[in-house]
Amino acid sequence: MVGREILAEWLSFQVDAGADEAIGAEAIDRYRAPPPAAAAEPDPPMPVAPPRRMPTAAAATALEPAGAAAASAQQRAQACGSLTELRQALLEFDGCALKDTATQLVFADGNPQAAVMLIGEAPGRDEDRTGLPFVGESGQLLDRMLAAIGLDRTSVYITNIVPWRPPGNRHPSQDETTACAPFAARHIELVAPKLLVLLGGVSAGTLLGRSEGITRLRGRWHEYRSTAGIIPAMPTFHPAYLLRQPALKRESWRDLLEIKDKLTVIR
């Protein structure tokens, strides 16, 4: 043990060094290993959210106006037994907001008994004014394209996916094409053409159920399936697009030749 004299000398040294207070009541052995740290208490468990319930069919319809409009369109379209009834059903249909901004319905033009049915995307300004599809500048180009393979409006039937003009001649939205697609499908069933020409990406994507752009879809035959049977369908560039990109007319000419050859076979 350390004697009192040594401890007294040590304390005297501490005082002389400036130590004037004690840190603790007991001495600390700093060479001894520290005690193990106490285990941390686990965090309380996070509350588990109840499983998310999928909406019922009725709730989904209420939440998705486009879906409700398409369901209504499907019911109305299938009830039509003639083109006259289909046109009247469109006049009475309120599931597409474009009806409120357009001047009038643009239903169809040409010969409903023709072997070739052409389907575009939506009317433009001139079509909205006259009530007929493809009568503006792009329609004049379409007439020249058809004439190049021996066709005209007496030997083809022409319509659009959406029968009302979008404001500013913009492309129709997904909701608008979804609402109108059942009428377009019924239109095809009633006309029962021998082949379809799908003008532009909106028409091709909607009717073929494809997500690729028109550049990938065009130039080869696809199958359109309906109650009228399997109908060969050729997607090609919309005439309005060709007016902006005239270099693509060469590709469209190849599509026209394919259409001409197919007509020779099926007639």
Describe the structure.
The chain is of the alpha/beta class. It has a single domain (65-266), classed as Uracil-DNA Glycosylase, subunit E (3-Layer(aba) Sandwich), CATH 3.40.470. It is built from twelve helices and six strands. The protein has helices at residues 4-16, 57-63, 65-78, 83-92, 98-101, 125-130, 137-147, 174-191, 201-208, 214-217, 239-244, 249-266, and strands at residues 109-110, 116-120, 156-160, 195-199, 222-226, 229-236. Strands 1-3-2-4-6-5 form a six-stranded mixed β-sheet. Strand 5 and strand 6 form a beta hairpin. The longest helix is centred in the last third of the chain and has 18 residues, at 174-191. It starts with a helix and ends with a helix.
Which CATH top level class fits?
Answer: Alpha Beta
Taken from the alpha-carbon principal axes, the silhouette is elongated
Q: Pick out the low-confidence regions.
A: 46-64
- With helices defined by DSSP (H or I, 4 residues minimum), what is the helix count? 12
